[in-house]
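Quick note —
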Amino acid sequence: MKVVLQRSKAASVTVDGTVTGAIDNGYVLLVGITHEDTHEDVAYLAKKVANLRLWEDAEGKMNHSIQEHGGAILSVSQFTLYGDAKKGNRPSFISAARPEVAEPLWEAFNQALRELGLHVETGIFGAMMDVALINDGPVTILLESK
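Predicted structure written out below.
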């Protein structure tokens, strides 16, 4: 499982002209799931996202988690994180989990974040989405469960 985490000042997801999720201060999470991922991967990354210290303290050091700082999550399913472009010019997505595997794990990830006390907004699984964000910092971190 891969998560691209972007600290943001504001972000939204729009599908067919309708905003499906929006946050002010918080994290945008682009979430990719592969065939081998399990609920253990989901739990590991949800806890990592909740506890990662990416917010500044009084001295300007990244020393506070989103739980301490406050903020919300905008979670977007992103199978293209498992795109492989080593050969040719068209990526292969064979490493991305099929929707019947990926969607329940993405939903479980979002629920795990909620159970850790975070407010979670989402895009729509499998939809063509327009994602807008103001990256704060910029701070962008790649997290992987394996």
